[in-house]
Amino acid sequence: MAGNSRLLKLTGSRERIGLGGEGVLRTEGRRQEALAMLTAAYEAGIRYYDSAPAYAGSERYYGLFWVQHPERKDGTFQTSKSGQRSADGALEDLSNTLTRMGRDYLGLWQIHDVRDAADIREIEGPKGALRAFYDARETGTVRGIGVTGHHDPAVLLHAVTHWDVDSVLLPVNPVEAVIGGFLDQVIPAARERGIGVIGMKTLGAGTYIHHESGFSPETLIRFALSQDLDLVIVGCSTADEARFLARIGQEHTTMSDEEQVQLIDTVRPYAHRLAYYRGVI
Predict the structure, then answer these.
(1) Which of 109, 180, 204, 258 has the most C-beta neighbours closer than 10 Å?
(2) Of all helices (H) and strands (E), which one includes residue 118?
(3) C-beta of residue 19 within 8 angstroms of C-beta of residue 45
(4) Domain range for residue 238?
């Protein structure tokens, strides 16, 4: 369960909400908007921050924010990722990430978007990225390592059962409750090994929001937080969205089984079409 996860031991926090790397962070040339959103997120109490080299200007925006507010680094948990499959490529990513962000270390560094058997073979190979991740954790350049994926639950299941990772980042939403794989196979396997679970794709990049059907951002986030995971990350585009996200994390109530079933049944006829981020259904 969440109380024993390796991720919670790293974060040292029971915070259930983190700032995702999407939204305004996944842009270029919107510095003032990004900094305003990050300021609002911090001031509202969010301390878990997600990013990746693949997310446009995300790491640079964070770097600007930490330069402006160096005192705010303490007590925050900064994460990033690498989509490189070789050890050399991953280590180059890590070096660039730390430079862009102005950080000496990361709280969590994640193997990004693992999709298929070819990815697994390359990552696990003699010159693969997995060794670089292990070494970075051993030296303290990163405090923990994780894996992320949304393409094929079988691939992510292999990762959590064969790799010594501290966390897994995967899709958590009513669509996944219909299709199966991530929620009913990967999460239990991760929990058996004490691996922390982080939810993403909670709002379906905004496409799942349909107030007339009861699919508000708050409802979708409550659904995710009612699953067996440590926290949910959601990208924000404005300061108001960041404040709203923080408030949900602080005030949410667990969703009843009856409410969850109602949401799942509503999306059931459309689930396969709504799983836009999957490669295997």
Answers:
(1) 109
(2) helix 117-124
(3) no
(4) 2-267
Quote the pTM value: 0.97
pLDDT given for residue 3 in this prediction: 61
How far apart CA 92 and CA 106 sit, in angstroms, is 14
Tokens of 30: 């919107």
Contacts for 206-211 with beta carbons within 8 Å, 24 or more apart?
A: 207/274, 207/276, 208/173, 208/174, 208/175, 208/267, 208/274
State the DSSP H helix or E strand holding residue 136, giving kind and residue range, or none if neither: helix 129-139
pLDDT in tens, 38-49: 999 999 999 999
- For the segment 142-188, what is each residue's pLDDT rounded down to a tens digit? 999 999 999 999 999 999 999 999 999 999 999 999 999 999 999 99
Tokens 């509503």 correspond to what residue?
Answer: 266
Output the pLDDT for position 4. 78
Write the CATH number for 91.
3.20.20.100
Token pair for 3: 């109380």
Write out the H or E segment, with its range, that includes residue 82. strand 77-82
Domain count, the chain: 1
Look at residue 114 and tell me if it is in a domain: yes
Amino acid at the residue 47: R
Helix axes 239-251, 217-225, angle to 10 degrees: 40
CA gap 17, 250 in Å, rounded: 8
Task: Give 3-state DSSP helix, strand, coil % of the chain, rounded to 5.
Answer: 50, 15, 35
Kindly state whether residue 139 falls inside one of the protein's structural domains: yes
Domain membership of residue 38 (yes or no) is yes
Beta strand 17-23 with 77-82 is unpaired
E strand segments, 51-175: 77-82, 108-111, 145-148, 167-171
At 46, list the tokens: 């969010």
The rounded radius of gyration (Å) of the Cα atoms in the chain is 18
Q: What is the mean pLDDT of residues 12-30?
A: 95
The SS3 call for residue 144 is coil
